[in-house]
Amino acid sequence: MSHEFDAELAPEDLKKTTRDPEALRAALEGWLVTKFPADAKPSVAEVSSPSETGMSSETLLFDAQWEEGGKPAAQSFVARVEPDPNDCPVFPLYDLEGQFKLLAYLREHSRIPVPVVRWLELDPSHLGAPFFVMERAEGRVPPDVLPYTFGSWVTEATPDERRQLQDSSVGILADLHEIDASVPALDFLEFDLPGATPLERHFENQRRYYQWMRGDRRHPIIEQTFAWLETNWPSEEGETVVSWGDSRIGNVMYDGFTPSAVLDWEMAARGPRELDVGWMIFLHCFFQEITTMAGQPGLADFMQPAEVVATYEARTGKALKNIDWFQVYAGLRHGIVMARVHARSVHFGQGEWPDDIDSVIYHRPTLERMIDGSWWK
């Protein structure tokens, strides 16, 4: 049984879309004409996509030029586009309107540094799918490709600089969770699914996601983890907050080691505060584990659970409960995503399903140790 990280096909080589960049450029340029005054003459020179991050929504980077008051003007933008359903998207649904509304709300009602959103377009006739446009933020991002643990500006930083990055990233969660999640303006974050609590509805959403993702396959480690989580369900769920959902440093831009923009809100929901803290801890654990599988040291002293929890509790004055359970839940959720990402590589002819189907979930050994209890010893 092999658990080695397969770097034969680097993630930046994985095909994500069949859309043509030049066609997207022309379509964006034509669409921008409708957003500016008649004499603005907007143009778009080129459309590109980031290569170091992102495997879900399609992200388009473009620079626009136009005339304003007889003088040239320009702005760098980012468009988030719903994936083509024929391109084996990671998630079954993409609520672009919800993401737009949440970013606008956070910009107005929180200290979270999120990009300025400009336009929401729900008519799919322009780009072939709904999309929204925001102003491009400035900063550097810990790469996913290869992960920042393999060698990056994060590994090259001093211990004090990494601690500043860690604490300021945990601070994002502390600030986010101060928002009153019960306001009607945020009702779109609630899953309309069976369940007596936000966590139960969140869990049901993950169960349905797995059923959609697996098709006619079955992933034993995912099903075993579902069973463990049900058996060990938290006796107390705690306060409901606005959950970022994909709370990891790879979704943050940094000015030095301080967050300058918080990105990727497509997994946002109402839920317990531990959802985000557990995900932040586990996602670093995931990257660290595949780094050590490749025989490299990584960042073993970074994002350690006890330190993250202590920082969060000191910032918020709130005690976190059942954080081990939420780390397992994060491992389950990420396992479903990983299996779907592999399905996409198969769809585009860049991979195949192995006989050991769970080997595509690189953190299977971690999940196995978590649910048999040896991980915590």
CATH architecture of the largest domain: Alpha-Beta Complex
CATH class group of the largest domain: Alpha Beta
What string, H for helix and E for strand, traces the elements in order?
Answer: HEEEHEEHHHEEEEHHHH
CATH-assigned homologous superfamily of the largest domain: Aminoglycoside phosphotransferase (APH), C-terminal lobe
Radius of gyration: 21 Å
Q: What form results from the Cα inertia axes?
A: globular
Mind summarizing the main beta sheet?
5 strands, antiparallel
Structural class call reads alpha+beta
Strand order of the largest sheet: 1-2-3-5-4
Question: Whole-Å distance between the termini?
Answer: 24 Å
Mean pLDDT, all residues: 92
Q: According to CATH, what is the topology of the largest domain? A: Aminoglycoside 3'-phosphotransferase, Chain: A, domain 2
| Portion in beta strands | 5-15%
Tally of separate domains:
2
Count of extended strands: 9
The oligomeric status of these chains comes to: single chain
Count of helix runs:
9
Question: Are there runs of 5+ residues with pLDDT below 50, and where?
Answer: 1-15
Which percent range fits the helix content? Answer: 25-40%
